[in-house]
Amino acid sequence: MSWIKTNFLWMMYRCGWASKPNQEHVLAIWIKRDGFDEILSKAYTPGTQKQANVSKDDVLVRLQWDPDHTPDGTKEQRRAIQLGLKGEILKKYATEYILKIEDITPFVLSKRPLLTEKKMQHLNVAQERVYPVQDDRTAELIGVDKI
Questions:
Q1: DSSP letter (8 states) at residue 54
Q2: What percent of the chain has pLDDT over 70?
């Protein structure tokens, strides 16, 4: 299973701003909107999987709602979506959906000193916004309001 982490600050928390062992490189991956929508349409939490009576082996996308984090790693109230892909959907992600891959490690490393020097007011990171799920079934499946 490979994971899509959609939230920049959650990733920075997870990789320690590119300082944790075997997590010293950070890649930004752009994917097609219709590809992301297809991934979401196949996503199950353990709860929705159980409600739909879908076996674990048949779940191609595992959805987790994890706490979002502030730049210094403090947990936020809002949640960040994580998507675990396997099987055919993982193959499509790798071969059809990816538009661009960028190594943003230099950017991440340039921002990390601002955290240790307590200069977070100078920290500029990726702008994030709510993803507008447009399909009713998908919105219900993943537990979000349709926008």
A1: -
A2: 98
Tokens of 92: 């499509």
Residue 90 neighbours by CB under 8 Å, 6+ apart: 1, 2, 60
CA–chain centroid gap for 114, Å, is: 24
List the beta bridge partners of residue 83. Answer: 4, 63
In this structure, are strands 43-44 and 61-69 parallel, antiparallel, or unpaired? parallel
Cα gap 82→66, rounded to integer Å: 7
pLDDT band at 22 (very low <50, low <70, confident <90, very high): very high
Q: pLDDT by residue (tens digit) across 34-45?
A: 999 999 999 999
CA distance 136 to 16: 36
147 has a pLDDT exceeding 70: no
Tell me the sheet residues that pair with 2.
85
Rounded CA separation 120/8 (Å)? 16
Residues 6+ apart with CB under 8 A from 117: none
